[in-house]
Design a protein that fits this description.
Blueprint: H1 2-11, H2 16-32, H3 43-55, H4 61-78, H5 104-112, H6 116-128, H7 132-136, E1 143-144, E2 149-152, E3 161-164, H8 170-189, H9 199-204, E4 224-225, E5 232-233, H10 239-252, H11 261-274, H12 279-286, H13 291-294
Antiparallel strand pairs: 1-2, 2-3, 4-5
Subcellular location: Cytoplasm
Subunit structure: Forms a cyclic heterotetrameric complex composed of two molecules of XerC and two molecules of XerD.
GO molecular function, one term: DNA binding
């Protein structure tokens, strides 16, 4: 059955990360119910499983909703069971949190404790507002030096968009292109050199995978086996490697705030709004579907709570 779940996920063109997460939750659900087949389980078992996650497991609302999404996929897409009560299961309410934003001085302090490729990637996240996976998945052809633009392919929601290419990073990015070409030429000499392409593109353009333009801008140091096809190819840099160096850089910069790759995206949006850019422009650069998502950054602007004089400071 798990093989069928995997097949249906790939038919739907879900990401490999989603595939792994859904498989893990479905397996956990089956084991929690004594390895009984999901067809023999129903609303009480699903609600008990989700309640166990929340009470005993103390998982976050987003994790609980992720488990529910996996089970909904199992029953609707794989088992094709029309269960009206599934629509009645209430999703956990996610807390509305204000994003962590670094000041310009704090951004500079963190970047000062990075070097090499990690410095470039972190600088690119702050300078473009990209998500970390969007940055790692950049292809050489997606960087337009003449127009100072970066094209983000298949971002969240499978949408393409364009964002700004910081001119201060152009030289460093050009060096990355040279490095990527050297690795690609070496792979070609060894009989490799095919980059991963979505299935439809690979069928339509069978030679494109070996073209330099389709290679990752930030290729991994070593080739690895593709988990889907089993083919040996060069993937992009592991995003977790950036997280590790950011934690060390934050400590060295003596910054108390948590700093992740996504913190640079939050800071990018907030600093643009502080400089007077229109919220619709920021929305397009970030790739938000709804402007309401972008409006959360107006809550942390200096002209909000930080720009108000406390009545206590006016005494005397």
């Amino acid at each position: 059955m798990l093989d069928e779940v995997r097949r249906r996920i790939r038919v739907k063109h879900y990401s490999l990360r989603t595939e792994r997460v859904y498989i893990a939750w479905i397996r956990r659900f089956i084991l929690a119910n004594g390895k009984r087949h999901p067809r023999d389980l129903g609303q009480p078992e699903i609600e008990a499983f989700l309640s166990h996650l929340a009470v005993e497991g103390q998982v976050s609302a987003s994790t609980q909703n992720q488990a529910l999404s996996a089970l909904l996929f199992l029953y609707r897409e794989v088992l094709a069971m029309e269960l009206p009560w599934l629509d009645g299961i209430v999703r956990a309410k996610r807390p509305q949190r204000v994003p962590t934003v670094l000041s310009k001085q704090e951004v500079a302090a963190v970047l000062a404790h990075l070097d090499g490729r990690m410095w470039l990637i972190a600088s690119l996240l702050y300078g473009t507002g990209m998500r970390v996976l969007e940055c790692m998945r950049l292809r050489v052809k997606d960087v337009d030096f003449s127009r100072n633009e970066i094209t983000v392919r298949e971002g969240k929601g499978a949408k393409d968009r364009r964002t700004v290419l910081p001119q201060s990073l152009a030289s460093a990015l050009e060096r990355e292109v040279v490095r990527a070409r050297a690795l690609h030429d070496d792979d070609l000499r060894q009989g490799f050199g095919e980059a991963y392409l979505p299935a439809a593109l690979a069928r339509k353009y069978p030679q494109a995978a070996r073209d330099f333009g389709w290679q990752y801008l930030f290729p991994a140091a070593r080739r690895s086996l593709d988990p889907k096809s089993g083919q040996e190819r060069r993937h992009h840099v592991d995003p977790e490697s950036l997280g590790r160096v950011l934690r060390r850089a934050r400590l060295r910069a003596d910054i108390a705030k948590p700093v992740t790759a996504h913190t640079f995206r939050h800071s990018f949006a907030t600093h643009l709004l502080e400089r007077g850019y229109d919220i619709r422009t920021v929305q397009e650069l970030l790739g938000h579907k709804d402007v309401a998502t972008t409006q959360i950054y107006t809550h942390v602007l200096n002209r909000g709570a930080g720009g108000v004089l406390s009545p206590l400071d006016g005494l005397g």
